[in-house]
Every structure is written in structure tokens, then in C-alpha cells.
Write a structure and sequence with these properties.
By secondary structure, the protein is an alpha/beta fold. It contains 17 helices and 11 strands.
């Protein structure tokens, strides 16, 4: 019989098999995970709200259904958690802010509805930066990186990265506007998928930048991400940006390998302004992929600086629009970092937004053209090893220059809406996780995950767990 730690640190798909075989019960699994949260999260702060009663109720329902022979699929009875900007009926949704500290929605986000329909068990709501930008409100304890408490845990989906990496849930949802699925995935050593823009409904998810926001899974394996993405993806009449596309069985195709896939690499893009430990680890993945049968090709990525400038203008102005009802009327209730971002966004002229839109179209065209020549683009998920907190204070006011420099491998793909996956690809000299990113054509999450899975299975990085 597995110990509690052994059970909690398994992957989602591993425990799903145990549940389906009735080797472990959803109630037992949920209680074990709740006990682990109670023991460890006091120092990790990955959860803002733990929904103990709801989780046990949902676990009992799942156990009864499975006992009667009604098995809904690989999320049935699985304890998961969601970022605290996903609306949950009857459960507070704070966005890690003072503004919404006690707000309780009267409906569920579409992604939450879909998780419930699949039989998932909600453990709670996960910590994040204030309203999903870069810094934390002074009243909210920041999530703590489980690999090293003195290092950055990633950006706004940091609670999702910490909880998933520390095995305090079997999978989580994050959001990504400029890199906020990929940064915490990289910093916490987990897999993160940013789907194509519009693949997953954002109805009932508090926005940062409406035209940039993506919702996606964060898990301990690519197979787990495939399960979660299939569950939450698909058209939603309540979100007009969603796509009328059939959602494929990602789990059924990820094992197809990379033989014959063309993977593009721009060595300059991978190395310029990147930590040598990161770039060396990422470039080393090309040998693994080549040995698996992929065709590695040189490509050129261009227009990144213009894209980053456009991202800031678009995101800041759209964020100001989302907070029009409370800023500046409640300016004092925002933390200094986010308040400064709102002040910037409020000053942006329509003329500046129009110019940024033109620059956005250029980077979209560049990537579309590049991805006609290759099937995937390879680069780092994050250009640096997780930074010391002394260099990136949780409450610091982040300048435009600081934030855009960090976003050079992420924000362009929010502008383009391209699907991406982040996969662990090594560890630094200080035993901190490093991460590979693969980017694909619109709608081709299956190919992105297929390549990520092939690399993952050929290496051992994803099997490591943080020393907590």
C-alpha cells in the first residue's frame, strides 16, 4: 500500500487508474490530499481558500457513482484546484486583492462547470498575484517556491505552480496573459499548456487583458495536461471568442512521437538576454528530439522588441478598462505595483493602442510565416533561472522595462494566440528547475503536447519532486 506521500506525488493519470480499478477511493484520496495541504501549505501559501467540505462531498458523490459502475473518465474523483480568478458559486473569488477580498460569485466559470461535469473534486482556490499582473497585494502572503523558498515562484499563476509542484493537488488551472502559465510552470518544475486563444472559455474568469487572456492546465505530466485540456476546451456561447472546433482526444494522440516533425530553433532567440544555464539546457533538448526522429531546422524569429512594446500598451489599456468601476475611485485599495500599472493603462491614448495593434499583427504574421516552414518552434519557457526574491520583491513596483525583458519568450505568443507547452528540461547548479517551451500553429495543441510528451518520456526531469 502506498504511503500518503507516495499517493499524493503520483500523477493525475496514475491515480485515475487506481480509482478506476477501485484500488483507492476518491474519499481516501481527497482526505489524504487535504491532510497534506493542512501539513504543508502553512509555509507554502499556495491556497487562498481550501474548500474542505465541498471537496469531501464531491468525493463521496464520485465514490458512490463509481461504485454503481458510472465512471465519467480520468478526472472522476480526482482532487484538483483552480486559480482564484475563476468564479466559483458560493465560494469567495478574491483575485488575491483587497478589492474582492470577500466577494462570493453566484455562478461558476465555464471551466469550473466543465471540471465538475467530469467528476473532479475541487480542493480550493489558488494564490496569485494581485489581479493576475506581476506583484502581490501587501495583505496577501505570496506563494512560496517549493524548490527554494528564497526564489521566485513564477508570475500570476504562482499558486497553481506551487500547489501542483508540491503535490498539493493533482492538477490545476492557471491563466496566461504574458507568461503566467509558463513562468510558474518553469519555476516550479511542472508542465503547463497555454492553449490557442479561444480554445478554452474565459466566461466567469476575471480578466487582465481581454484580447490576451488564456486559461490552461498545469500538471505534473504531459498526459495529465492532455486530460485536463480536453475537459475544459470547446465552444461556449457565453464567450464569443471561443472556437467552433471539435476537441480531439489529446490523450489518445500524445504517444504518436515526433518522427518527421520539423522543429524550428533560432539559437540567437534562445540565448540572447537569457541565462546561460537556461539556454544551454534548452538547446540540449534538440539532440534528444533529433534522436527521437524530429527534424531540427534553423529559423529566424524577428520583431520581438516591437512585439513586447505592443504587448505592454495593449495589456495595460485593457486592464484599465477591466477596472474602470474601481479605479481610480478605490485606488488606495490596490497594492502599489498594480496601482501603478492601472495608472499607466489609464493614460494610454487610442492612437497608441491602434499603433500597438498594427505591431501585434506583424508579430502574428511573422509567426504564421515561420510555422509554415516548420511544425513547431522551440525556445525557453523563461529566460532566467528562478530569481532570488531579493532581486524580484513580491511587492515591488515593476517597471515597463523590467517586465518586458522577462516576457521576451512568452508575450509574443499571447499576442499571436499560439498554443504552447512548457516541459521540465533540467536543473540549474542550484537545483532549480529549467523549462523547455514548444509553440505550434493555431488549433494544434495536440502536436504541441505530442512533442512535449515524447521529450518528457525520453528524460527523467519530470519525475523529480521538490524537497519539502
Amino acid at each position: 500500500m502506498a504511503t500518503a506521500t507516495e499517493l499524493c506525488t503520483k500523477t493525475l493519470t496514475e491515480v485515475a487508474t487506481l480509482i478506476q480499478k477501485k484500488a483507492v477511493s476518491p474519499v481516501e484520496l481527497t482526505q489524504t490530499m487535504l491532510d497534506r495541504i493542512s501539513t504543508l501549505d502553512g509555509k507554502l501559501h499556495s491556497y487562498i481558500t481550501v474548500t474542505t467540505d465541498l471537496a469531501l462531498q464531491q468525493a463521496r458523490t464520485a465514490e458512490q457513482e463509481i461504485g454503481r459502475g458510472t465512471y465519467r473518465g480520468p478526472l472522476h474523483g480526482i482532487p484538483i484546484a483552480v486559480k482564484d480568478l475563476c468564479y466559483t458559486k458560493g465560494i469567495r473569488t478574491t483575485c488575491a486583492s483587497k478589492i474582492l477580498a470577500n466577494w462570493i460569485p453566484d455562478y461558476d466559470a465555464t471551466v469550473v462547470e466543465k471540471l465538475y461535469a467530469a467528476g473532479a473534486v475541487l480542493l480550493g482556490k489558488l494564490g496569485m498575484t494581485e489581479f493576475a499582473y506581476a506583484g502581490y497585494h501587501p495583505s496577501v502572503p505570496p506563494p512560496v517556491n517549493p524548490w527554494n523558498p528564497q526564489r521566485w515562484p513564477g508570475a500570476s499563476s504562482s499558486g497553481s505552480g506551487v500547489a501542483t509542484g508540491a503535490s498539493l493537488c493533482f492538477g490545476s488551472l492557471g491563466s496566461d496573459t504574458g507568461g503566467s502559465i509558463r513562468f510558474p510552470s518553469a519555476a516550479c518544475g511542472v508542465v503547463g499548456v497555454k492553449p490557442t486563444y479561444g480554445k478554452v472559455s474565459r466566461y466567469g474568469v476575471f480578466p487582465l487583458g481581454e484580447s490576451l487572456d488564456h486559461i490552461g492546465p498545469m500538471t505534473r505530466s504531459v498526459a495529465d495536461a492532455a486530460v485536463m485540456l480536453r475537459t475544459i476546451a470547446g465552444i461556449d456561447p457565453k464567450d464569443p471568442t471561443t472556437r467552433r472546433e471539435t476537441v480531439p482526444d489529446y490523450l489518445g494522440t500524445i504517444r504518436n512521437g515526433v518522427k518527421g516533425l520539423r522543429i524550428g530553433v533560432d539559437e540567437t532567440y534562445c540565448t540572447a538576454d537569457a541565462d546561460p544555464e537556461v539556454s544551454q539546457a534548452v538547446l540540449a533538448t534538440t539532440k534528444v528530439l533529433r534522436d527521437l526522429g524530429a527534424n531540427i531546422q534553423e529559423v529566424q524569429v524577428s520583431g520581438i522588441d516591437e512585439a513586447l512594446a505592443a504587448w505592454y500598451v495593449i495589456c495595460a489599456s485593457e486592464t484599465a478598462a477591466a477596472h474602470e468601476q474601481t479605479y481610480p475611485s478605490r485606488a488606495e485599495d490596490y497594492g502599489p505595483g498594480f496601482r501603478g500599472f492601472l495608472a499607466d493603462g489609464s493614460k494610454i491614448r487610442g492612437l497608441d493602442y491602434a499603433k500597438a495593434y498594427v505591431a501585434r499583427q506583424k508579430v502574428k504574421y511573422m509567426l504564421d510565416d515561420l510555422l509554415q516552414k516548420v511544425d513547431l518552434l522551440l525556445c525557453p519557457s523563461m529566460p532566467v533561472v528562478p530569481m532570488p526574491l531579493t532581486n524580484f520583491s513580491p511587492q515591488a513596483v515593476i517597471t515597463r522595462e523590467n517586465i518586458t525583458g522577462l516576457l521576451r519568450h512568452t508575450a509574443p505568443f499571447d499576442l499571436s494566440g499560439s498554443p504552447t507547452i512548457s516541459v521540465p528540461c533540467g536543473f540549474s547548479a542550484d537545483s532549480l528547475p529549467l523549462s523547455l517551451q514548444l509553440i505550434g500553429r493555431h488549433g494544434e495543441e495536440g502536436t504541441v503536447m505530442q512533442a512535449g510528451y515524447a521529450y518528457e518520456q525520453a528524460t527523467e526531469w519530470h519525475k523529480r519532486r521538490p524537497p519539502i
